[in-house]
Amino acid sequence: MIKSPPSSLHKDPLAWIAENESQDLQQYFDHASALDTKGRYLHFDELRFRLPKGLNVNVIWSLIKKVRAKQLNAVLHLDEPERLAQYYFTPTMQKAISMTDRHATSASLEYMCSKVGEQKHFEYLLNDLIEDEAISSSQLEGAATTTKVAKDLLKRARKPRTIDEKMIIGNFKMMQFAWQNRHKRLSIELIQEMHQVGVENIDDEKYHPGVFRQTDDVEVADSEGNTVHTPPPAARIDERLEQFVEWVNQDNQDEESNQFMHPLIKAIVMHFVIGFEHPFRDGNGRVARSLFYWFMFKNDYAAFRYIAISVLLKAAPIQYGKSYLYTESDELDLTYFIDYQCKIITRAISEFKLAYETNLKESEAFSRWLWSSGLLSKLSDKQKTIVMVAKNGKSQKFTAVNVKENLGCSYNTARDALNGLVELNLFDKAKEGKEWVFALRPQKDIIQSWE
C-alpha cells in the first residue's frame, strides 16, 4: 500500500519554518520545487524517503504543492463529486513527445520500410511486433499463456484451446479494430464495440461484452487482495463517458490555443480515464490501452502499430499500478501517470528503433551470404523472405496459412514456396495435427548439404 499525502496542508509553510526551524530555512527552500534535483515529480509516498533527516516532510510537501499549483494544466473533470484532473509538463514528457514525433509518424515508418527496400521480411518483423502488444496486454490482465505458445497461436492461426488463449486472440482483434476504425470519431458505441470485439466468447458471464456495468460491486485490488480503487458509481456512467467522448473529440492541436495538448499526452490521459472510470465489469485495462493506440493511429502515428508498450508495463506491473494510485491519491494529479507512461513509451520506441536497425544489418549480411553461397539465383523473393525471417529467429515455425497471411499471397503460392525450401535442403517439414509445419534446418546441416 502507498502512503497517501497529508489530508491537510500548512496554510503558510514559510511562516512555520521561520518560527520553528529558521536555522534550516535554506534546506527547506532547496526542496521548494515541482521537481527534485534529478528531475523527478515525486509523490509524497516517495518524497518521505528522500529528505535529509530532521526536516519536516509535511511542511516540505506543503511548499511543493504550492509551487506545483501555479504550474498545473487543467485537463477534464472526473469522478463523483467532480474533481478537476490536471498535470505538470515534465522533461520526461518532452522527451517522449520528441521521440514520438521523430520516429513514430506514418512518414518515418515509410522511410524505414524504404531503407529495407523490397525485402519483405521487414513486414514479417512488423507483424511480430503487433503480436507482442496483443500478447503482453493479455498477460498483464492475467493470461497465463507463455509468450512462445501465444506466438504459435497467432502465427499458425489455430483455434484457441483455453480462456487464456482466447484472451490473446481477443486482444489481437482489439488492436486490429483500433487500426481499422482510426478515422472515426470517438463515441460511446465505439468504446462498447471495442470491448465486445476484445472479450466476446471468452467468458461472457464474466465480461458482459460491450455492456457497461450496472452495479457498484466492482473494485480494483492489489496482489494481496487490498482494495486500491473504487470506481465512480455506475448510475451515471453514460453521462460521464459522454463528457469524456466530447473532450476526446475536441481539437486540442491549435498551437495558439491555451488548450493545446499533444496527441501523445491526450492518448495517455484517455488510457487513465478508462482505467479510473472502469465502465465494464472486466477487461477495462485492455480497452484503455487499445484506446491509447486508436488515438495515436487517428493522429497519424502509424508506427505505434509496432510499438508494444504492454511488454514493458508487464515487466513492472507494480510501478504501473502505483502511477494510477499516485494520481488518484493526490487530487487527480495526472502527472504521475503521464510521466510514467512517457518513460515506458520512450523505451518502447527505442526498442522499436533497435529492432529495425538490427533487422537492416541482418538483411544486408543475409544478402551477402545468399550471393556467396550461390543460393540467390535459386530462391524466389518469397523464399528469400521466409529464410531471412527464420534465420533471425523472429519465427520458429511456418505454415502455408501464416506465410499466406504475412506475405499477402495465395495459399498455393505459400505452400509451394515452403516445399521448395525443403527441396533445397534449407527447411525440414513435419506433420502436426492436420497441417504441415516447416522449420529452418540447423546451420551446420545446411552448410554440409551445400558443400
Automatic annotation (TrEMBL):
<protein>
    <submittedName>
        <fullName>Cell filamentation protein Fic</fullName>
    </submittedName>
</protein>
<dbReference type="InterPro" id="IPR003812">
    <property type="entry name" value="Fido"/>
</dbReference>
<keyword id="KW-0067">ATP-binding</keyword>
<dbReference type="InterPro" id="IPR036597">
    <property type="entry name" value="Fido-like_dom_sf"/>
</dbReference>
<feature type="domain" description="Fido">
    <location>
        <begin position="186"/>
        <end position="343"/>
    </location>
</feature>
<keyword id="KW-0547">Nucleotide-binding</keyword>
<dbReference type="Pfam" id="PF02661">
    <property type="entry name" value="Fic"/>
</dbReference>
<feature type="active site">
    <location>
        <position position="278"/>
    </location>
</feature>
<dbReference type="InterPro" id="IPR040198">
    <property type="entry name" value="Fido_containing"/>
</dbReference>
<feature type="binding site">
    <location>
        <begin position="282"/>
        <end position="289"/>
    </location>
    <ligand>
        <name>ATP</name>
    </ligand>
</feature>
<feature type="binding site">
    <location>
        <begin position="220"/>
        <end position="229"/>
    </location>
    <ligand>
        <name>ATP</name>
    </ligand>
</feature>
<dbReference type="GO" id="GO:0005524">
    <property type="term" value="F:ATP binding"/>
</dbReference>
